[in-house]
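LAB NOTEBOOK - FOLDING QUEUE
OPERATOR: T.R.
BATCH SIZE: 2
PURPOSE: Compare the predicted structure-token outputs for two unrelated chains run back to back under identical settings.
PRIORITY: normal
REVIEWER: second-year student, initials M.K.

ITEM 1
FIELD SEQUENCE / FIELD STRUCTURE:
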Amino acid sequence: MPKISKSSTKKTKTKTKKVGVAIKKPKKIIKKNSVKEKKAKEPIKISKNYTPKDTEKYMCDKHLSFFKIKLTEWKKELVRANNEALYHGSMDDNSVSADVVDQASSYTDKTVEMKAINRQIKLISKIDQALLRIKNNTYGFCEETAEPIGLKRLMARPVADLCISAQEKHEKEEKVYADD
């Protein structure tokens, strides 16, 4: 019987050696991954009076940060204006007139204000989409053709997602289907 017990201990020793080697290998891989994660992109600082130039590389980090700042400030302004309009519009609800003409005029004014607020809400969602494209590094390029939209167009309309030729094509298609 002693012979059987000796052979069983030898097998156990070899198994522990293999397990020890297998555990060491993943530790090395984890160390390599942690080094790569430490590298992070620092934010670009630009001056307040900076404007993108055609001589710079198209949609470089400066351009993207400029448009990000422009879009976020525009969004804040729109949200503030909408909140004020809604607050002042709710204040006018208390004045109920007995005159039917005055009531109709008030109703028309509120309808116009609400349409303007709805347009601004749609614009805010377009600004959010543009900010998402900046985050994904697709801002400034046409969604249909993947060509550069152009700095002049983006300065005039920062939420533009189509180049001029694609926008013209889109508008022509809208006109055709609107006639039906």
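ITEM 2
FIELD SEQUENCE / FIELD STRUCTURE:
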Amino acid sequence: MIDAEIALSLLAAHGVALVAPLALIEGPIVTILAAWLAQRGVLDVGAVTVTVILADLLGDALLYAAGRHGGRAVLRVLRLGDAQVDTLALSLRARAPALLIGAKLTHAAGAAVLFAAGAAHVPFGLFMACNLAATLPKSLGFVLLGWWFGEAHARLGGWIGWVALGLTLLAALLFILFRRRSCL
């Protein structure tokens, strides 16, 4: 994770030109810092918003491409056979919208699911539509959070990580409970 103070000084010095590459590395905290700088008149809030949304979607597409072109090899390294991989791929394609949107909103589970979607050959248009549906409210929420509470960025950085972890654990628990209930 990028240090908030380093990101803040870089963003203030170099403007929106650095928002996109930094947002690819650590989107939420960079979005909060950039929106706070926009609130203070250092950056343009419209440019920040569009940039973080596009950077998030670009990062998603890169993870999808990595999964599409190397995902099966990674799954084989994890000792999953072709039959298991095919079963997982069918399951992911059948539930793609719910899984993709849910994973994007939990933040922590996002990268693995986006990679798996590429490996499962989820249609790219569907993949991007689902990610856009999750990215818009998520990015706008972080822009608003930064606009209103950006000066608390040091406290928010740690808080966001714990919330993401908590949401991921909750999602995993709900998934396990749902699977158990549907298997009965």
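REVIEWER COMMENT (ITEM 2): Residues 34 and 48 are 7 Å apart (CA to CA).
FOLLOW-UP: none requested
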